[in-house]
Specification:
Largest sheet: 11 strands, antiparallel
Shape: globular
């Protein structure tokens, strides 16, 4: 498994002094980027091929939120390819190697010229050495929707929401969803399902609901097409 060491920064904290869920997602996303860059399959390589990896789904399980200044190790490993889809795990550990959080992700490889799926190159298949799946409770990719959803305030996509691929970063979708649900959530599990890319100037309309210990936000365009679905499950009682 590929690892990098870090330390929890003040800018990454919520009002309780713990790492924000969105910042945890950023750590995992950065880890996969570092991994790809270090094995020569990063941004420049993909640009040369006219390819891009796009997030299809997240499942993040949090055991304990680290606090200010805490030293952590962030790791990632791919565990499978199927057609144009790649499967990747993540983990964050403390200095005693206790698992603070882990994640499962699905990624789709797309041709940047056509927007259609593309199979990984031979270099990718060789470079991304597959490892066994992490031991975690794997949730289905599809997120069931509540029957009654409440429409929220529209969100205009601005330059701050975009990444180097000129579309809304998957982490920004999660931030928008969490804000539409009121913010400040401490959750045990995040699931996100991505349906459609959003660009500069697009307007996202959040539809939200709370049921059975979970909060759901569905981000749609003005015609009702879904960009992203985010589900937050309540944080479990921490063991003392």
């Amino acid at each position: 498994m590929y690892f990098f060491d870090s330390r929890i920064r003040y800018s990454e904290l919520d009002e309780t002094g713990c790492l924000k869920l969105e910042s945890l997602l950023d750590y995992f996303q950065d880890c996969s980027t570092f991994h790809s860059e270090d094995i020569g399959l990063g941004v420049a390589y993909l640009k040369g091929l006219g390819r891009v990896w796009v997030m299809s789904s997240w499942q993040i399980v949090v055991n304990c939120y680290p606090k200010l200044g805490q030293r952590v190790m962030v790791g990632t490993a791919p565990y499978g390819f199927k057609g144009f889809v790649g499967y990747r795990n993540f983990i964050m550990k403390d200095e005693k190697e206790n698992c603070l959080a882990c994640a499962n992700t699905l990624w789709s490889l797309l041709d940047t010229g056509t927007g259609k799926p593309a199979r990984p190159s031979e270099e990718m298949l060789k470079g991304y050495v597959l490892e066994p799946k992490l031991a975690m409770d794997y949730a289905p990719r599809r997120i069931p929707l509540p029957e009654c959803l409440k429409e929220g305030e529209p969100v205009l996509i601005r330059p701050c929401h975009l990444d180097i691929n000129h579309h809304v970063n998957n982490g920004q979708f999660v931030r928008i969803a969490m804000e539409s649900l009121g913010g400040g959530q401490k959750v045990a599990q995040l699931r996100a399902e991505y349906k459609k890319q959003a660009m500069l100037g697009d307007v996202l309309i959040p539809y939200t609901a709370c049921e059975g210990g979970r909060e759901v936000a569905v981000l749609k365009d003005g015609q009702g097409a879904v960009y992203c679905i985010v589900e937050l499950q309540e944080k479990r009682q921490e063991k003392k």
